[in-house]
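FW: tagging you since you asked about this chain on Friday. Here's the raw sequence from the shared folder, copied in full. Didn't touch anything.
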Amino acid sequence: MKHLRLTSLGLALVGLVGLFTTTTVFANSWYEIELIAFSRTTDKSLKEQFEAPTEELKTSNAMDLMRPYVQPAVADLIKTIPACAPAQADPTLPAPPAATPVSDAVQQQVQQLLTEHQQNKQPVAVVVEDSLDVQLEPELPFTSLFQLNFQNCLMEQWDLDGQLISRPLSAEELALQLPAPAQIPATFTGDGLTKNSAYLVGPNDLNLKNLAYQLQREAGKQLLLHTAWRQPLISGRNSRTHWYAGLYLDERTLQSETDTTLQIDLMQQVQQQLDAVQQGQSSLQQWFSPWQFDSLVQLRLGRFIQFDGTFYLRQTEDPDQPAQLAIKQSNRLTLGQIHYLDHPRLGVIIQVKRYTPPDTTLARTP
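HL: got it, structure written out here
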């Protein structure tokens, strides 16, 4: 019996040591990463031929910390409305921080998005063609009036009889996202509130502000993105994050230009690419991202922190180069040091350092 008691005590001690070790490892697994990306003015004296992307960035399993701020979903916006805020389940827990109310401009965007969604769901009348019978033009379906009442978070619709019907937003409506902005601010941060998973830091937590400011003032350079985030890194596992910036240049944006300018630009671009193909320098490529700058950053924790980055950058200044460049960079990072990854068209500055989250966050983390 004594032997059993000693064994039980030993197991208990091992369990306590294991728990303490796990907690310590988790506390030490958090890191803060700050990233700066900037483009360079074209140097036509360079004879090097740069690569064009051959495939789309594989971002399906990468964290996108920018999306909730760039293109928030209707469901996320609804949560910020005071009348829609869910009741706190446990009154003993500290109250969550107050969310920023939805502005009038955002409310109009949400209403327009829901309006377009409702109009797209209206049934379309079908006219039978090649018929000998005289067909009267069918009456268009009645489009009911509707609006989102931000006072009670209900969709209000009027039926054919003029009766007001209130209903909650459907799952399909809540999944809608606001349209992408025309351009993303070069300095991109979040609310900085501590979370149990990866999150963007606040504007006051950027440490390389002076460096970014110098780049903005330096001739021949354009600051594309300056951001920072905090996340746990686990040894042996890859962490992939998706970052993008600059102008939003999808087909609809291009079509907004005048037809003459658009045709000239497209013909010039096609001819340039064909000439490059004949010279064996390039191949015809399509746009894989609507953003001026698109990237996939991968960090792997081991004896060193291994950094692997894939960057897509649009350029239109040098006709001898592909209109979209694919740039890959890899390096071992030393904690606390500022690393500069150089390319004739793109510069990337990255710093990784340890971060100790508050004890309250560790206590709530599963």
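FW: Residues 1-25, 252-264, 361-366 have pLDDT under 50 and may be disordered.
HL: agreed, and The CA atoms of residues 90 and 233 lie 31 Å apart.
FW: great, closing this out.
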